């Protein structure tokens, strides 16, 4: 069962979760983090974080908030911010970009909102806040690239030896297929995924997968890796029969 978390504690934890569920993990980090060293602007009334990585990087860069209302996309990001000593004022009920928009749209008309995230963030958040009347500025805290060594899962898929895959973002889908194309097995890898159980986090990831020819079997209602892992493992045919 392939998992595509960055090669840090998130990948280790993902492997632990899958092993606890009785799956055999195939860790294949499709994302690496290149920090930019930037921090959120100081003139914002709201600062929005969309990942644990962002929380760690602003701490390392020495960010010191003032009176901003600090928003986190979900509990994992909120916990990471708190661990670094930052207060978190808002976490949406739905842990997605659209969930953040829903939580903020009645509050931010005329307000300055700083969105601090990666260079591959969803346009849903910026456009939604802009439509709500906010003055939106985006700070790129880090860039996401594909590690050169990635691709073990691609080869297994192409050989028909992959039972399931857990994609956590649109970029992991794109990087998987890039790795397959580099190896000259893109079509075989797609065929392998067609025979596997494919789980993804969030509708944007599902839409990306579908647009690239990947059929998605599982989109958990809760946008967390734990939910993705549990529901994807449960949906593997040999386990659900």
UniProtKB/TrEMBL annotation:
EC supergroup of this enzyme: lyase
InterPro entries to which the protein is assigned, alphabetical: 4pyrrol_syn_uPrphyn_synt_sf, 4pyrrol_synth_uPrphyn_synth, UROS/Hem4
Pfam entry (one): HEM4
Domain of life, source organism: Archaea
Molecular-function annotations in GO: uroporphyrinogen-III synthase activity
Chain ranges of the Tetrapyrrole biosynthesis uroporphyrinogen III synthase domain: 15-229
GO biological process: uroporphyrinogen III biosynthetic process
EC identifiers of the protein: 4.2.1.75
Sorted UniProt keywords: Lyase
PANTHER family: BLR5956 PROTEIN
Protein name as annotated: Uroporphyrinogen-III synthase
UniProt source species: Natrinema pallidum DSM 3751
């Amino acid at each position: 069962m392939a998992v595509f978390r960055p090669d840090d504690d998130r990948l280790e934890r993902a492997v632990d979760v899958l092993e606890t569920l009785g799956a055999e993990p195939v860790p294949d980090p499709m994302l690496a983090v290149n920090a930019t060293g930037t921090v959120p602007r100081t003139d914002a009334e709201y600062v929005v974080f969309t990942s644990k990585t962002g929380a760690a990087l602003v701490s390392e860069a020495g960010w010191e908030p003032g009176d901003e209302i600090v928003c986190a996309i979900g509990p994992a990001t909120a916990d990471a911010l708190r661990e670094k000593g930052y207060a978190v004022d808002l976490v949406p009920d739905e842990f997605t970009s659209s969930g953040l928009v829903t939580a903020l749209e009645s509050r931010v008309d005329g307000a300055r909102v700083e969105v601090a995230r990666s260079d591959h963030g969803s346009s849903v958040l910026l456009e939604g806040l802009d439509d709500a009347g906010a003055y939106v500025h985006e700070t790129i805290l880090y860039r996401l690239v594909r590690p050169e060594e990635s691709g073990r899962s691609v080869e297994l898929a192409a050989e028909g030896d992959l039972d399931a895959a857990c994609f956590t973002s649109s970029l992991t889908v794109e990087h998987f297929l890039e790795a397959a194309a580099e190896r000259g097995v893109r079509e075989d890898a797609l065929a392998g995924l067609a025979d596997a159980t494919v789980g993804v986090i969030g509708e944007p990831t599902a839409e990306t997968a579908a647009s690239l020819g990947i059929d998605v079997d599982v989109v958990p209602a809760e946008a967390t890796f734990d939910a993705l892992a549990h529901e994807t493992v449960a949906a593997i045919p040999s386990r659900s029969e």
